[in-house]
Amino acid sequence: MSLALSVKTVDLHYGAAQALKGISIDCAPGRITAVLGRNGVGKSSTLRAITGINHVSSGTIAFGEDTLKRTPPYKRARMGIGYVPQGREIFPLLTVRENLETGYAGLARNERNIPAYIFELFPVLKSMLGRRGGDLSGGQQQQLAIGRALVTRPKVLVLDEPTEGIQPSIIKDIGRALQFLRDEKGMTILLVEQFLDFCREVADDIYVMDRGEIMHTGPASDLDRADVRKHLMV
Ligand SMILES: Nc1ncnc2c1ncn2[C@@H]1O[C@H](COP(=O)(O)OP(=O)(O)OP(=O)(O)O)[C@@H](O)[C@H]1O
Ligand SMILES: [Mg+2]
Fold first, then answer.
1. pLDDT tens-digit profile of 54-71?
2. 212, 226, 198, 228: which is closest to 34 by C-alpha?
3. Count of domains forming the chain
4. Family assignment (predicted)?
5. Strand partners, 66
6. 189: domain range?
């Protein structure tokens, strides 16, 4: 089932500092939407507003038919928002299997299993089920973090810089996995990134962010335009 996610004129503050200034993002059902921006422009803040980790100061976030107000993170996860945080946040002392099983928390008893397709997407997880999370490479941990989010049976998957610090061959695997989730599972995907080439390859729709504001909205091919790229130059 595909569900849309919609962020409308959201402000977010950390104390007196405003991190998000009236941002609006529409994630169309069954498509991959990418938000691009340099360091510190508010990408993670946007995802933490969507997952409910941070409260918004104004504006609304809608998920399907529901408007999320003070809905806590665990309820949003149960509703179908799967989250892959920046830096992956794998439990280093738990095994790969135990890390995946942390995704069971919000599931009904008969859903408490690891869907087989996760191991087809990321075979390395199957071969390393008994290893500790902390023993995995960065790329393997990223696959594990995506696998853990998929265990929760998300309708919308949000990912915070899934390519950060990861070798090119695994970036390709992750890109293919996201396209599989869109095409075969009908998932709606939102990712935030700094890596243009990855977004041009996997995303359908893009948003470009700078200093807490959305500067541009369009198809992924707009990343070839100089007036769009200028917002992303360091
Ligand atoms: N917990 C916090 N308390 C205070 N300020 C914060 C906090 N988290 C983020 N900020 C500030 O809010 C702004 C946006 O940060 P955010 O982490 O959302 O950016 P980002 O685009 O994800 O950056 P990066 O590319 O480095 O991950 C930055 O100026 C940052 O310093
Ligand atoms: Mg960030």
1. 999 999 999 999 999 889
2. 198
3. 1
4. Belongs to the ABC transporter superfamily.
5. 63
6. 5-229
